[in-house]
Amino acid sequence: MNMNSVSQHIVLSDEAGQRLDNFLFRHVKGVPKTHIYRIIRSGEIRVNKKRADASQKLVEGDVLRIPPVRMAEPKEVPNERISKKITSDVVVLHEDDSILVVNKPSGLAVHGGSGVSLGLIEAMRAQRPNVKFLELVHRLDRDTSGILILAKKRSALLHLHEQIREGRMEKRYLLVVHGALPVSGKSIPLKYPLLKYLLPNGERRVRVSADGGQASHTNIRVKGVYHDGLCSLVEAQLKTGRTHQIRVHLQSLGFPIVGDAVYGKPHLASVFPRQALHAERLGLVHPVSGIHSEWEVGLPPDMANLLLQAGITL
After folding, report:
1. Tens digit of pLDDT for each residue in 237-275?
2. I want to staple 307 with a disulfide (CB 3.0 to 4.6 A). Which of 79, 141, 147, 312 is the partner?
3. Gap between the Cα atoms of 80 and 62, Å rounded
4. Which of 14, 21, 53, 141 is catalytic?
5. Residue 237, H or E segment
């Protein structure tokens, strides 16, 4: 693919903390590393309109200027047929000139990469060829279902990022964990600092680390314990939005999410084919109207059936 014009990218929360060169290696795949280092040294890459060093750590909200570069041709082109197939199970909850809110099914990556040629964002862009700007406001893991918001204007993206940074965007999840958490009407704060790292194969992982980890905060409320303490139903509210935050926080608490093959218990990963994690509610201030808006979606069939088998009723 040829990038024939200058592009801009706004750094999301789960991209923050990366070195500039490492980010570019993944963002402009197919470009030789030597060329990436050359355009950084020449000042063609700008961070917040300033020259940057390859080792500079990116911060959420940074605006990157990326010059035209020749990239490798993708294996697939997001034509109408492919994009319709990808988004066939995506339910649009709300759309206007500024934002697009969808209910993402599990198993659908939000963007291409890591073995996935196309994701939700590429398919949505293909479905809306007249929309000049369409970016993810936040992310959901591939196997996490639920509400996802996209911005159709750069001003809307910046406004929504500000709400996330200031903790004014409400994001609530339902999850099932292994073990019996104490049931209480009180909210339990989990504040484990999280550090991102890469495996040799390039896959992203997160661990709790007081040394270099980013401050992270999840509030959980235990809704019930079932099957004689084998599992618990938990509601989680994100106060920060780090990569894999809920999954790693619950693992660190000693109650990994059912079906989590990465951060869960290996011998129990086959209990459920994915992490039992669903983004059920999203609340925000509309970036244009200033009106508080809220959306809520029920559990998908696979997770509803899991709860039914565990004797859990909502």
Report:
1. 999 888 899 999 999 999 999 999 999 876 665 678 899
2. 312
3. 33
4. 141
5. strand 231-238
